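Expect chain and fold; see below:
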Amino acid sequence: MEANEGLVAGSHNRNELIVIYGHEEPKALKNPSGQVCEICGDEVGLTVDGELFVACNECGFPVCRPCYEYERREGTQLCPQCKTRYKRLKGSPRVEGDDDEEDIDDIEHEFNIDEKNTNTNIVDAMLHGKSYGRGLEDDDTAQYPPVIAGIRSHPISGEIQVSNHAYGEQMMGSTLHKRVHPYLPSEPGSARWDDKKEMGWKERMDDWKTQEGNLRPEPDDSADPDMAIVDEARQPLSRKVQIASSKINPYRMVIVARLAILAFFLRYRILNPVHDALGLWLTSVICELWFAFSWILDQFPKWFPIERETYLDRLSLRYERKGEPNMLAAVDIFVSTVDPMKEPPLVTANTVLSILAMDYPIDKISCYISDDGASMCTFESLSETAEFARKWVPFCKKFSIEPRAPEFYFSEKVDYLKDKVQPTFVKERRAMKREYEEFKVRINALVAKATKVPLGGWIMQDGTPWPGNNTKDHPGMIQVFLGHSGGHDVEGNELSRLVYVSREKRPGFQHHKKAGAMNALVRISGILTNAPFMLNLDCDHYLNNSKAIREAMCFLMDPKVGKKVCYVQFPQRFDGIDRHDRYANRNTVFFDINMKGLDGIQGPVYVGGGCVFRRQALYGYEPPVDPKRPKMVSCDCFPCFGYRKKLPKYSKDGVNGDANTTGFDDNKELLMSQMNFEKKFGQSPIFVTSTLMVEGGVPPSSSPAALLKEAIHVISCGYEDKTEWGSELGWIYGSITEDILTGFKMHCRGWRSIYCMPKRAAFKGSAPINLSDRLNQVLRWALGSVEIFFSRHNPVWYGYKDGKLKWLERFAYINTTVYPFTSLPLLAYCTLPAICLLTGKFILPEISTFASLFFIALFLSIFTTGILELRWSGVSIEEWWRNEQFWVIGGVSAHLFAVIQGLLKVLAGIETNFTVTSKATDDEEFGELYAFKWTTLLIPPTTILIINLVGVVAGISDATNNGYNSWGPLFGKLFFAFWVIIHLYPFLKGLMGKQNRPPTIVVIWSVLLASIFSLLWIRIDPFILKTKGPDTKQCGDNC
């Protein structure tokens, strides 16, 4: 489908397909090629020369090539209309009866079938389960199983690259039917043999010795100047940078020491109960045991932290040689959006513009926008973005500006003249800034228009109703805004492909939210472009580094490392966060410490946006297995240092014993592969064929309309029924945090991932700096982890079958699923100080001098571990402290609610609906930081704060009344209470707001809960042993 040819809307289940043009009446898409096969109903298609395929030259009866081939091979070989025998056409295999034909052209070109025609036959065989021509060799090429062709099969013709399939042994057990022919003149083997025939005997012998390694070729002095470049291109594209031993070895020693100290401390705590407060003591010990377990899960995956370096110059030397075609791999980029009111179209537009302007070959980039809300506002905004891109992209590439998102480029408070030498830069920058401001006004006008929905729904410019007026019941929609034909900038250069996609939605179907939208993009991109790699971004994550894709290619395209890499994860960086990062939005402890540790094991976990995938890994294939070195088998003679191959065993009849069952096994494998492909990928032959192409590329269709029909088919709401999508393929369903689950499945198959941290941040996004939004975001993440914990994909028991997941990697995944449950002991532990202050009891007995050493050593080991982590990671102490504070804030609020909601979902089946995190920004700098939004997540932390503050006042008052001796035991309790209050201090500031006054509703709820808790405590007092006093009935009041 070419650019700007109209919006295509359709439903495969309803057999509807409409093309809506910009200013014309809607036209039904019927018989786009003008010729329909009278046998199967498919399009006739074109020949390899681009002409209309004609099966019968006598009457011209319309028949497609697959039906023509089938009729010649299996049928009567006669034309259905004129009953004339079909003659053999160019590129068709011979059948019985062709020898009688006096066709000079066929005889002369018996074996002169060009590579283009051969590849066409291979693709036809994969699509329709038919074979003709010479098959694929077992040793040199992949074994492609035929795919069952239903009534929807479309013929495919044209050129297609067929390369080795690294995953053939897993999914493709059967081969195409083979017909043995001699070497074709165009094949490497025959060409080499023809050259050798022209050489003399001595030259051929020298050539053979050179290949065997016994004779070195003479050095060519003329190539010496280029040897340095060649040697540089052969070097690795990346390397590991180990942490200096002076930093990492003390860190590991302290971890071991801390583990030993922790064991002694817990032993002391268990063996020394507090008899007058057994309840308090037992609760505290249980909490401390869980904290120790959680610390082990979090700490030991950080045992092997590494860093990485990339060499972009070597990447260019290897894959971008002058005078040769660019060999960099193509990349499909996915951007997802739902609600234009919460995800402003201007934010999405900046992300799209940064993608189109990236430093990468334009013909290797395709950008797909998933509009899961079917919003006409998003559609029209994308149309405006495509027009502005014609001016913005050449400006970015001409002056090499960074970043290439205009909103953030023009708002940067830096010297934009630095390193700029072109005299016209200032003039063109001012003109471009004016163009962008006009573009913003047009986008804002569209957003203002979208706030008032007409009664009859939205109407397009040509008077056609917008197909997505009903967001829950609409057909699939596709629009190519920019592409290789029709997409040029103001300077006449081509622009990368830009495609708008809105998948079909119908009532009664499960659409699986964002994961379902991403899987729809995987399938439609496999039909239209089929790049071997994919990058997924949120609508607010723009490219801050125009070379980010090149950084990822240094790992994915590395000949040694890249074959087993399933994805390259970049750290997430954010704009618009307050200087002190009050709510730990940057999350640098996780991205700069934990992820580096995982990179040294089996790779980082997948955490959402900013991740470049290998398409074959998302398709459920396993990584290629390195060939094992053959065992050395000696021939028992002293000079022999080689090995000899074992001879095959033969049966008594002199025939190989396995030969009798070969035919049966091939037929069985053929049938199983046909069934597996439909069950695995769905019933789209063109898409199934694309999954077999490891190096990417689209099987050329007879016409763009055929691809269009398949694209509408694969985004239909019922396509995934009875397939493995969401269970084994693509983004995995079953959790709100589909990213963690998807990466976990890949690691279980044996893949590894890479963590890439370029000096200039690759991507930047927006973070919710408001307290309520931040807690809701953390709640969504935590609930996803709880859902994984209660699913069959729990890393505690899943993935042991093949043993491909490393133990420390499993520890990390277990930690990602159990961390929300830490909220239960954390809530109890934060309540204990107030209880101790109100009751006068404590969780510890009287500590001796020897026992105090355990506490001192434990606190020292905790602080030393943190300091050494900061030393080798480069994280500042302020960021580390903010992370510790928000661990407590989120633990007693969002994590707690996530556990409760997860249990309700498992036990009672109660589903929880989440709203999209708002990406809108406030006009005032950090104005959103002080905005208050009511949510029940604020109640538990506020209650804990009030209880502890009341406890501190009560404890000090009691010590003042009881005299000097009461102050000694009070210090331990006050230290415990202040530990809680200090950790909750950012929450207290956020609660006060800009006017330093807490909302009335929060105060009322918190005081009410604190009062109820205090009254119940006075009435029940469960943690203190009851003591029996004298009986006043027997001895009176003066006893």
